[in-house]
Amino acid sequence: MEPLFSLTGIVFGHTSERPVFNGIDLTLNPSDRVALTGSNGSGKTTLLYLMVGLVRPQSGVLVAFGRHRRKEADFHEVRLRAGLLFDNSDSQLFCATVEDDVAFGPFNLGWPRARVEAAVRDTLERLDVATCRDRSPAELSYGEKRLVALATILAMEPDVMLLDEPTNGLDDSHVDTMVRALQTTKCALLVASHDRIFLKRVTTQCIRLDQGRIVSGSL
Amino acid sequence: MARPIVDSGDHAVLRPDPRLLILTVSVWIVLLILLRHPRGLVAAALAALILARALGVPWRLLGRRALALNGLLALWFPLLAFESFAPSAWPWSLSAERTLLFATVVLRANAILLLAQGLAGSMDAATMSCALMGLRCPPKLAHLMLLAARNLEILRDEWHTLYRAASLRGFRLTFRRRPWQTLGVLVGGLTLRSLDRADTILMAMKCRGYQGRVHILRRFRYHGADLVFVLIMLIAGSIIHWLDSTGG
Ligand SMILES: Nc1ncnc2c1ncn2[C@@H]1O[C@H](COP(=O)(O)OP(=O)(O)OP(=O)(O)O)[C@@H](O)[C@H]1O
Ligand SMILES: [Mg+2]
Q1: Which of A163, A187, B112, B229 could form an SS bridge with A85, CB 3.0 to 4.6 Å?
Q2: Which of B245, B236, B244, B246 has the alpha carbon at shortest distance from B108?
Q3: Could you count the other beta carbons within 10 Å of the beta carbon of residue A54?
Q4: How many angstroms is it from A43 CA to the middle of ligand 1?
């Protein structure tokens, strides 16, 4: 089976004197469920950004969905198939209503209207936020925003979800809802988080970022 | 309830179809530019005020914006209205003709401000972009408008956050020097943070496959009330045109 992502020798730094990654090797296969751990500032967020082309490596090879990705145009397909949950939902939600925000991705996938409507309805129900449908994302509570942000990528039926601190600020019942939704998807997962209990429930493998490299980790 | 680009009350009497509103406001702005006589302009400014109020823009907001605009215009008054600043022409005299010209500039600017307020106050960025696409506007332009509107929203949000953060630590605008320094820091921070957020939001949009086109679930439909709206605007436009053309 062809891997979803395969990164080799990735080197990256926001500034040249302080590199974040010095040689990252990572393979993510379909239906892999991987926990990504590491201390604050170890580069978890940066790695997820890098995988969808929001930052570009200084050197190394990034192969996603079977093709070498280098330019902005290469990443359009990657972004449609790999759903990234930002650590800050405020930057993820930008439409006037929750339903429009969830419909945004599916429309960009070129789905017909009826399918988009069904996807929006199902996803919001699945995440227990159907009552927020017509509200503005800006006025939701922190936890509601988090679930709606997850809905926006879940609705696109991605092959893999890259989740950045998904449970940050969620109460137990919201976490349970999220866990249930993640356990029932068939897509692969790469979850950056400090929440070990949550990671144990949704992932089966663990890697750790340490000194700009990936080492195997444990939960 | 969708959040409009600029704050507005929920007391809108009129809720025309967004496409229609964009069209009407564009036509009226052209009309305003063509008007020559102060009589027509006064009528147009009044009509724009009524429209903005009917669309639900609160007095408070209109007042604030008008103050800013007219304050700025007032700075130009001496330059535009005096005959000459030559030392030999002392005492400098106001030119009646130029003062009148200045008045028309002020009236026109205010009327356009009112129309823009009514437009931005009654729809959010995504709706505006969709409505523009519905009007067969080129996607590039719709994209630009979307980003501009979004960035305005961000600017407003970030300003509220920063101002609140500062007030929580005891910041108040008074007539001493220090608050104004803090204000400078706040505005600087505002610029940086807004740029940063605008950046991340564009990233988030790209992450969900954005390529310049926005779709929304709500479908635009014309209603009976829209016809009434068009009729009122047509009649008002004709009266203003008549006032303008019959003026001396
Ligand atoms: N825009 C930026 N400019 C410069 N340096 C940055 C920028 N963003 C992140 N960094 C630096 O890159 C490093 C990795 O940051 P990153 O946000 O990826 O860490 P993280 O593992 O996600 O941390 P956390 O657990 O706190 O979320 C940090 O040292 C950070 O200071
Ligand atoms: Mg992070």
Answers
A1: A163
A2: B244
A3: 20
A4: 5
CATH of the domain at A94: 3.40.50.300
Contact A30/A202 with Cβ under 8 angstroms? Answer: no
> Which residues does chain A have within 8 Å of residue B3's beta carbon, measured at their own beta carbons?
96, 136, 138-139
Is there a domain that residue A59 lies in?
no
Query: What is the distance between the alpha carbons of residues A76 and B102, in angstroms, rounded to a whole number?
Result: 52
b/e B13-43 (16+ beta carbons within 10 angstroms → b): ebbbbbbbbbbbbeebbebbeebebbbbbbb
pLDDT category of residue B59 using cuts at 50, 70 and 90: confident
Domain with A155 in it: 32-54+78-216
Taking only the tens place, the pLDDT of each residue in A122-144 is: 999 999 999 999 888 878 899 99
Query: Residue A108: which of B2, B3, B208 has the nearest Cβ?
Result: B208
**In this structure, what DSSP letter does residue B242 have?**
H
The DSSP string of B176-229 is SHHHHHHHHHHHHHHHHHHHHHHHHHHHHHHHTT-SS----SSPP---HHHHHH
Q: Are B55 and B122 in contact (CB under 8 A)?
A: yes
Q: How confident is the model at residue B10 (pLDDT cuts 50, 70, 90)?
A: low
Q: How do residues A195-216 score in pLDDT, each as one tens digit?
A: 999 999 999 999 999 999 999 8
Establish if A200 belongs to a structural domain.
yes
Residue A65 domain flag: no
Instruction: Give the distance, in angstroms, between the CA of residue A178 and the centroid of all CA atoms in the same chain.
Output: 13
Token readout for A100 is 């429009």
CA distance B12 to A86: 36
Low-confidence stretches of chain A (pLDDT < 50) are none
- Tell whether A181 is covered by a domain: yes
User: B85 in helix, strand or coil?
Assistant: coil
Instruction: Give me the residue from A120, A136, A156 closest to B208, CB to CB.
Output: A156
ipTM value for the complex? 0.82
Cβ atoms within 10 Å of A185's Cβ, excluding its own: 16
